[in-house]
TrEMBL record:
Annotated TM spans: 39-59
Gene3D superfamilies to which the protein is assigned, alphabetical: 1.10.287.130, PAS domain
Species per Swiss-Prot/TrEMBL record: Mucilaginibacter auburnensis
Protein name: histidine kinase
Residues forming coiled coils: 179-206
Length: 511
């Protein structure tokens, strides 16, 4: 407004000065030939022309200014009335509404007349009114963004609005024009997002794997609690930092190349290796995402070291078993896969079965009478969380030629006491079993001989001894009868001796 007034005044001054200079020069040129009476008329004409010209000029300038002002006011009014967000104007001293737009009427539910009977405090919940009054008094002149506030609609609904305001002069009064943007839905979505992120963080912190996110620029955007434990780094120290900043020698790690492959080719990559930065054996799984890469790391150092020790022990045991011809095996209880040592050829006829189907071949070779014993013994050991297992049974070595074997194994469990695998050896004990059977048979024969000696021989021997005593006291006629009985007892004793001799011969043949 001041700029327009200055322009009008400046134009008027320039025109006036130009008119005076030009008109005076023109009168001086005419003065020589004109009489005094004519000069009076010329001065009157000059003044009249000046007044008419400047009046028309001022009218045009003011009319142009008013047209622009009216257009500006119309534009402002249109912006105010047609703005999709609620707007209102209130007096700075009384806080009384003086004007509201259609959006405010529709959004808050009050009519224009109702608004004009209210103050800006009336659309706030009671607990926020005192704070608002203080803020209004301390607002600096001009534009202010006063943040997000809680408003209350006519129906009682509470909404979150972002408030921007501008101090204005209207009809000579100090007023404030407000733009209110409803962000209730935005805040709800933001809250849902925050709740989701919190749940996600809780979930990620509860898993046993280390987890972190890499964006496409290799910046770490998120990590869980297990990441701190495995890496030895604080999440707050790595979030937002580049992978190479966190691990300057990371490019030397085999994991780096798998991360790079997963990122560039957008494929899932899994890998096990030794992390040179964390000095641990790790199992890695990388999954491409829209933002970059999700990485899961599991510390397998303990199990890996056990496996390495087990491999070393198996290698040593293989070397030792090669001399003893034991067959070593490892039975993976999770996959039902069995692997055997190179000495399996010692068991005649087994290779063709084991090589073709190692998981089920062995049980198919077990003698039908021994299979229940084998399965029940193994089941009892596993159910009792036993660390040792042992069983003796017969296996078919070809052409229905069964041989006795001794099966002994150690059972390995995980931290949850779930059985993982069995590592053991199978030894051919058929010769030992046959010797045991032979000894059992000999012992049975010896027991029979002992029984014959203690029971059956005693009867005829006692008869002979009694008849000898009787022969010393009887006459000749009686002696013949005693001798016949004596011969019968002697024959019976001879049969007992022959029976014992036969048993001894049988034992010697078995031996």
């Amino acid at each position: 407004m001041r700029s327009a007034a200055f322009k009008i005044a400046a134009i008027y001054i320039v025109v006036a000065l130009a008119w005076i200079a030009l008109s005076d020069n023109l009168l001086d040129m005419v003065h020589i030939s004109a009489n005094r009476a004519n000069m009076v008329y010329l001065n009157i004409a000059k003044g009249s022309l000046y007044v008419i010209f400047t009046g028309v000029m001022l009218y045009k300038l003011i009319d142009k200014y008013n047209s622009r002002l009216a257009a500006s006011e119309q534009q402002y009014r249109s912006y105010f009335d047609n703005n999709p967000s609620p707007m209102w104007i209130y007096r700075q001293d009384t806080l009384q509404f003086t004007d509201v737009n259609d959006a405010a009427v529709n959004h808050y539910g009050y009519t224009r007349d109702e608004f004009k009977q209210m103050r800006v405090l009336d659309i706030r919940p009671t607990q926020y009114r005192k704070e608002l009054s203080k803020i209004i008094k301390t607002l600096p002149e001009g534009y202010n963004d006063v943040g997000t506030w809680v408003h209350q609609k006519k129906n009682g609904d509470l909404i979150d609005v972002q408030i921007s305001l501008q101090h204005i002069k209207n009809n000579g009064e100090n007023k404030i024009m407000v733009l209110a943007k409803d962000v209730t839905e935005l805040k709800r979505l933001e809250q849902e997002k925050n709740d989701y992120l919190l749940r996600l963080e809780d979930t990620l912190n509860s898993i046993s794997d280390a987890f972190f996110l890499l964006d496409k620029n290799w910046n770490i955007s998120m990590a869980n609690a297990m990441f701190e434990k495995i890496s030895g780094l604080k999440r707050t120290d790595v979030n937002g930092k580049n992978f190479m900043q966190v691990w300057p020698n990371g490019a030397d790690s085999p994991f780096y190349h798998h991360y790079k492959k997963a990122l560039s080719e957008k494929i899932t990559v899994k890998f096990e290796g030794y992390g040179i930065n964390v000095k641990k054996w790790l199992s890695m799984s990388c999954y491409p995402t829209q933002e970059g890469l999700a990485v899961y790391l599991t510390d397998i150092t303990e199990s890996k070291e056990k496996d390495l020790k087990l491999e070393l022990a198996l290698e040593r045991y293989n070397q030792a078993a090669a001399a003893s011809q034991d067959m070593l095996y490892e039975f993976d209880l999770l996959t039902n896969k069995v692997s055997y040592s190179e000495t399996k050829g010692h068991f005649i006829g087994l290779e063709k079965y084991i090589i073709s189907d190692p998981a089920n071949a062995w049980l198919s070779l077990v003698h039908v009478d021994d299979l229940p014993v084998l399965t029940s013994t193994m089941a009892k050991a596993l159910s009792a969380n036993a660390t040792k297992y042992a069983c003796e049974y017969r296996v078919n070595c070809g052409n229905v030629n069964y041989r006795w074997v001794s099966d002994k194994a150690s059972i390995i469990y995980n931290e949850q006491q779930q059985p993982l695998r069995m590592v053991g050896s199978i030894r051919d004990i058929n010769d030992i079993k046959e010797q045991e059977e032979s000894l059992k048979h000999q012992n049975n024969i010896l027991r029979e001989i002992a029984w014959i000696e203690s029971h059956e021989i005693r009867r005829p021997l006692a008869s002979i001894l009694g008849l000898v005593e009787l022969a010393n006291t009887c006459n000749r006629e009686e002696l013949n009868e005693v001798l016949s009985y004596l011969k019968f007892s002697a024959d019976e004793l001879d049969q007992m001796v022959r029976k014992i001799t036969s048993k001894i011969d049988e034992a010697e043949v078995d031996n």
